[in-house]
């Protein structure tokens, strides 16, 4: 039997109309560069120790993935040290999606919101985390993308997807995968892992988006969580 769970998060970023043309042209011509990040047992142990602590994205990468941090542009490194990690906080009883991606009137609704606010230009980003299982084979994924304007490339996106096993109300990271890229509008991290213990599992994602110069806020960090599934 295959089981699935989905949780979604929607963020609306409002930007003054005078910035719109410059923002689109500033990022669309940049070359896309992408990295995949893997982990070992020692890194997973360290992540469990850091989980839930007051730490920045830069500090987190410095401790867990230093080579990835060193490979980033210096300005981006400095910015990541200003961004606090938003640890996902899954509701183990109920998870309700905060947005319906099938709503074809999404753009029209945000245009109406912009008109009411006196703002003519905005960026809508979306993120989710999912999980499914067949036997002890568990597939987990976290993904981020720019919904509106369509195909708008932003300077930097990264997403880390964590597979958690739950025991007594406490989640423990058992596996993870991550992706990061410059000048993209979509990024995802997904992996299939064979677990050696029966129990409840879920996916948690940490999403980082860096927006073009002039955007307010200039960046965002947020967490998403999937439903809980039982793996026998």
Structure in words:
This protein has 232 residues and is an alpha+beta fold. It has one domain. 22% of the residues lie in helices and 45% in strands. The protein has six helices and ten strands. The chain has helices at 20-28, 41-50, 57-64, 66-70, 74-80, 106-117; strands at 2-15, 33-37, 121-134, 137-148, 154-167, 170-184, 186-194, 199-210, 219-225, 229-231. The strands form two sheets. Strands 2, 5, 6, 8, 9 and 10 form a six-stranded antiparallel beta sheet that branches. It has a four-stranded antiparallel beta sheet with strand order 1-3-4-7, covered by helices on one side. Strand 5 (154-167) and strand 6 form a beta hairpin. The longest helix is centred in the middle third of the chain and has 12 residues, at 106-117. The radius of gyration is 18 Å and the shape is globular. The relative contact order is 0.26. Mean pLDDT is 78; it is low at 1-8, 12-33 and 93-104.
């Amino acid at each position: 039997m295959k089981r699935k769970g989905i949780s979604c998060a929607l963020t609306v970023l409002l930007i003054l109309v005078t910035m719109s043309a410059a923002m689109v042209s500033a990022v669309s011509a940049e070359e896309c560069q992408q990295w995949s990040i893997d982990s070992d047992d020692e890194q997973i142990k360290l992540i469990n120790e850091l989980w839930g602590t007051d730490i920045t994205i830069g500090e987190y990468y410095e401790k867990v993935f230093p080579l990835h941090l060193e490979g980033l542009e210096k300005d981006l490194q400095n910015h990541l040290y200003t961004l606090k990690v938003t640890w996902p906080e899954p509701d183990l009883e109920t998870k309700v999606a905060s947005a319906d991606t099938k709503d074809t009137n999404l753009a029209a609704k945000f245009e109406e919101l912009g008109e009411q606010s006196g703002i003519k230009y905005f960026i809508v980003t979306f993120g989710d985390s999912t999980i499914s299982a067949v036997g002890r084979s568990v597939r987990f994924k976290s993904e981020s993308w720019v919904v509106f304007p369509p195909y708008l490339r932003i300077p930097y996106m990264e997403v880390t997807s964590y597979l958690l096993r739950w025991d007594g109300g406490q989640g423990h990271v058992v596996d993870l995968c991550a992706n990061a890229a410059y000048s993209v509008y979509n990024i995802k991290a997904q992996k299939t892992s064979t677990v050696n213990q029966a129990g409840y599992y879920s996916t948690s994602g940490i999403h980082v988006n860096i927006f073009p110069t002039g955007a307010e806020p200039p960046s965002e960090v947020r967490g998403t969580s999937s439903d809980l599934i039982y793996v026998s």
